[in-house]
């Protein structure tokens, strides 16, 4: 029997529950004596919602049917403070058995000794041949000890979602160059009708989106130069940033400064924005709200020199070191990594599987956008930007300093030049500290 629980939507409440051991919600997942022959596992989902939770619940039903001695307790951690809640659980030693873990968190959690190395399990797993070695090598490269702390099950990157019906009415197509991107936003902007040309992400997650767009615009192929200096303040990035923030308030709603991904997706699906930038994960939201005839999608435009730089993210699953039943947790993890599970999950949430056999199935070769995306990824000329997720303080720096500073840029409190220079300096200090400690 799957137990599903969604914690309260307030970080303060969650903190109070953790610190006072309130019985309303126990992050450990232990809710009383269990039968001696039944193992209970607690799984945390870092991004619950209608477009994801039902599919996890179905996967766990399938798993429990095949493993009657194991029960899965699903806990959805609200995306607005998921990292903070994981951090609190680690500090209080109330981690779940296993969880969905973002790639940018791996280095931080490993540095805190919170994750269980998966190397021995992985080496003995027959299904390892179905996962491209490049994913495994990348994850091992995120930590100094080069151990495997996460197995990736889903790949995604940002694309442009646009209102195909509005574009047809205006007699324009999807933008193929960045000049076209800005021109389409101006053309489709009708604030008097409550319709804006664009909805930007000014709140949680804004920097991931902005980074993808900066490097796609510039064609800059590396986040750090060989001497450890950061390329984020490249002059071409400043050029883009000035054009981008110029959209705010005139071609977007003023409330966009607070947008996380859900608010941004809602603006598009409700008909208040003609265009947004988001990953494949919102595909089914768009289809359910608007239907396929009214939704179009395209890769981010190439740089001026014709190069294509993409920021790809492969999220997946980790087992926490405190897990009482690590073998059972591994059984669940390998089940989630299987061809059948990856096909079911990724096809429903609109993302790309990491399992080779799953990827080769018709479910991921039929949609035009997926075909175009895979062709871009397989193109030897495409550069996949190596993000600095190996820096343990990267996620913290983004959340506590860079995201708030971006909001200051939008309101005019901080000059875009200073924003990029400060961002670069922060990354360079973090880079130098990390490599000094290696």
From TrEMBL:
<keyword id="KW-0449">Lipoprotein</keyword>
<keyword id="KW-0564">Palmitate</keyword>
<keyword id="KW-0472">Membrane</keyword>
<dbReference type="InterPro" id="IPR006059">
    <property type="entry name" value="SBP"/>
</dbReference>
<feature type="signal peptide">
    <location>
        <begin position="1"/>
        <end position="24"/>
    </location>
</feature>
<protein>
    <submittedName>
        <fullName>ABC transporter substrate-binding protein</fullName>
    </submittedName>
</protein>
<dbReference type="Pfam" id="PF01547">
    <property type="entry name" value="SBP_bac_1"/>
</dbReference>
<dbReference type="InterPro" id="IPR050490">
    <property type="entry name" value="Bact_solute-bd_prot1"/>
</dbReference>
<keyword id="KW-1003">Cell membrane</keyword>
<keyword id="KW-0732">Signal</keyword>
């Amino acid at each position: 029997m799957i137990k599903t629980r969604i914690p309260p939507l307030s970080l303060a409440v969650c903190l109070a529950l953790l610190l006072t051991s309130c019985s309303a919600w126990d992050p450990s997942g232990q809710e009383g004596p269990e039968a001696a022959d039944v193992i209970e596992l607690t799984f945390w989902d870092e991004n619950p919602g209608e477009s994801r939770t039902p599919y996890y619940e179905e996967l766990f039903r399938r798993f429990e049917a095949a493993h009657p001695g194991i029960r899965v307790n699903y806990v959805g951690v609200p995306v607005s403070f998921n990292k903070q809640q994981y951090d609190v659980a680690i500090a209080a030693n109330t981690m779940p058995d296993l969880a969905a873990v973002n790639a940018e968190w791996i280095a931080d959690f490993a540095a805190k000794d919170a994750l269980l190395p998966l190397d021995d399990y992985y080496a003995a797993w027959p299904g390892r041949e179905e996962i491209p070695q490049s994913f495994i090598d990348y994850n091992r490269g995120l930590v100094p000890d080069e151990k495997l702390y996460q197995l990736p099950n889903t790949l995604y990157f940002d694309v442009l979602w646009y209102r195909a019906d509005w574009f047809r009415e205006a007699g324009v197509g999807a933008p193929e160059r960045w000049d076209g991107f800005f021109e389409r936003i101006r053309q489709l902007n009708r604030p008097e009708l409550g319709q804006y040309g664009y909805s930007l992400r000014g709140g949680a997650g804004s920097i991931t989106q902005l980074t993808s767009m900066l490097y796609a615009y510039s064609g800059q192929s590396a986040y750090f130069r060989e001497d450890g200096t950061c390329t984020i303040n490249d002059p071409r990035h400043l050029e883009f940033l000035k054009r981008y923030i110029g959209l705010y308030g005139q071609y977007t709603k003023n409330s966009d400064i607070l947008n996380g991904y859900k608010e941004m997706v809602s603006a598009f699906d409700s008909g208040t924005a003609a265009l947004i930038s988001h990953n494949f994960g919102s595909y089914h939201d768009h289809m359910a709200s608007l239907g396929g005839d009214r939704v179009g999608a395209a890769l981010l435009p190439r740089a001026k020199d014709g190069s294509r730089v993409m920021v790809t993210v492969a999220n997946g699953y980790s087992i926490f070191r405190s897990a009482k039943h690590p073998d059972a947790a591994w059984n669940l993890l390998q089940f989630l990594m299987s061809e059948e599970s990856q096909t079911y999950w990724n096809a429903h949430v609109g993302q790309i599987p990491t399992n080779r056999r799953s990827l080769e199935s018709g479910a991921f070769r039929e949609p035009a956008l997926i075909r175009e995306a895979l062709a871009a990824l397989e193109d030897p000329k495409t550069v996949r930007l190596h993000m600095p997720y190996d820096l343990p303080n990267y996620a913290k720096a983004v959340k506590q300093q860079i995201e708030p500073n971006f909001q200051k840029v939008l309101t005019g409190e901080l000059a875009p030049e200073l924003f990029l220079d400060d961002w670069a300096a922060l990354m360079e200090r973090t880079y130098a500290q990390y490599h000094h400690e290696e």
